[in-house]
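Can't attach files on this board, so I'm pasting raw text. These are the components:
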Amino acid sequence: MFKIKKKLKNKLGRVGEFITPNGIIETPAFIVVGTKAAVKSLSPEQVGNLGAQAVLGNTYHLYLQPGDDIIKKAGGLNKFMNWNGPTFTDSGGFQVFSLGAGFGSNENKFEFQKNISNHSLNISDKVQSVHTKLVKINEDGVEFRSCIDGSRHFFTPEKSIEIQNNIGADIIFAFDECVSSSAEYNYQKEAMERTHRWAKRSLNYNNNHRLEVQLSSGNKQALFGIVQGGKFEDLRKKSAKIIGKMDFDGFGIGGSFSKEGLDKTLHFVNDLLPKEKIKHLLGIGEPSDLFIGIENGIDSFDCVSPTRIARTGMLYTKHGRINIIKVKYSRDFSKIEDDCKCYTCENYTKAYLSHLFRAQEMFASTLASIHNLYFIVNLVKNIRQSILDEKFYELKEEFLKKYYE
Amino acid sequence: MFKIKKKLKNKLGRVGEFITPNGIIETPAFIVVGTKAAVKSLSPEQVGNLGAQAVLGNTYHLYLQPGDDIIKKAGGLNKFMNWNGPTFTDSGGFQVFSLGAGFGSNENKFEFQKNISNHSLNISDKVQSVHTKLVKINEDGVEFRSCIDGSRHFFTPEKSIEIQNNIGADIIFAFDECVSSSAEYNYQKEAMERTHRWAKRSLNYNNNHRLEVQLSSGNKQALFGIVQGGKFEDLRKKSAKIIGKMDFDGFGIGGSFSKEGLDKTLHFVNDLLPKEKIKHLLGIGEPSDLFIGIENGIDSFDCVSPTRIARTGMLYTKHGRINIIKVKYSRDFSKIEDDCKCYTCENYTKAYLSHLFRAQEMFASTLASIHNLYFIVNLVKNIRQSILDEKFYELKEEFLKKYYE
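---
Top answer:
Structure tokens for the assembled complex are below.
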């Protein structure tokens, strides 16, 4: 259940609370990614101590390894991984297409830059052909290959929901077809329309089986529908209207965007979706995106970026990212940020962290991930507070000026 | 300063306390290895919570990376790594010869098995020739190559102590020549005699410089001499007599042993060394070795084994080691050990740990390392308590019967 506590004047932004069987999520919130039932390099206590409210696992990965039956037997995702708070699972749609079709490493939530648009047309054609070659889509569902051993698997909307019922997260997503950011209009439209039919089937299957899940675990899972349509305004509007009319507990906004058009797209999508329901922006979470998303009605975010870049030594600071491996940090005995209250900044110097990365110690990833997640999770908390204090625009201007200067 | 609290009747074993500038070490104690100023995959809080009293860093590695000058500027090893307790550094002797000469991965603290003794003669010759080729030893010191970039470096006893003074651990070791376990008698004798001359030089250098270290940091480092002599009884006895007469604060017993002769060797070495001083067995720490060592007068141990095998999925249990990656554990929702009080056993199942290893999650190493270190650190604590309770032999028989059955 979603309660709106305060609204941003003349905008769609709001402060709220989403109540789940495993606790309340104060929104706007950044949800920490724990793809394979673990936040990479962190203990659940470290995740909780940095201020995270909820963790998002991945249906595609958890189905392949360890298997949703094992997580069900363990008592569900949060018992399995020892996380005492709300959990999400995404539907596996994005991974089926990106990892299953083998375009994963080049895939991006934003379209290719305009200055390579001629080139991107060729990439688009190429991706589409790889896409259709390695992933077989029909009306029923998608055949894909495991990224672990190449074995063949078949996901339908019903299968995705069955797996997510087994995994037992508090918030689950309808199964969608996720299209490459460089795909052409006609294919985006075709995929979107299929996603709408799959949304209906996801909802029907869940309504028929959720009761059972509820009875056996004491949990009532929330099911979110996903809006698609890529970077095309007419498709996004159509998708928001159709998905918005279905009886979902909340909504995810998936697929790719044009970076310049993110604010406009999120505004008209969220304006068309039911206002009283929670909205999650899937897989996007750079600082500027967070301000744009929240201003335009997004209530929660997830993104692998804070932990992924942390493992390469890239750290967020108020003045932009720094690469801690640079030799200038090897004799820098100051904190990453003087006024940061994260565990890493409270106990370690840049020199130590720089050493750990150079020495290839695993603990480097732990300390860097704690700092980056703290930075993003607490940025969203500060944005939340700024709406309550009616100082959103001041914070936005001050933060973005420093960060991108 | 070392205080003996209780002795094992008719044996050399004892319970004691070693007072360092950063706290008391209750002996016998297992010292956790943090080679590069970090216990692999663990935070200092996780290390403290599992019961560890002290951490041992490595002079060779820390000299090469980040450099002892950086650790000195950071305020010493425990400030640099955020460990609020005693620290050790070994002298770098073992690493100079094992990593520097490139025989590291095959090197063992015990001699080759007898059933391959013909073969081992050939290996011995080969190792000796590699040894003398890549590491140039003269009376002054040793020239070796960095395991990171192949650059050339020269360690003398004075240089090793200077580095260890800079790193600023509570307990440091004299520089020794560490010979391959398969080396022949004449070479062991020659190396041992050089080690004795180097011990004297280490002690002299430290006596002339320790005062300065003491004044600048408020710390008085303890310097331990190292007994060498390999598997040869006459050499070990000679080394114990000569090193034992020097004015060290304690003693390390280094080099290699014959596995069957460990108890006898440790007995006569510790019987010849001054009884009132603390003795550390370098780099040995399998459960049976701990009982043998403590019974024969060893007060502290260090060994990479608990964390190294943990990272491969090998876990200690009272009934011997298990490999958690085995498929039979993937659906085993019990703890590693029902009565284990470690963080891992209190919060996670075998199925989860098995999944984390298969999914190649870093957190697998963290959980496995916590369990293995807890197992070994607390085994030594239990042995300590058994001496206080006059039940050492009962514990030894019961434990070893279960563990090796």
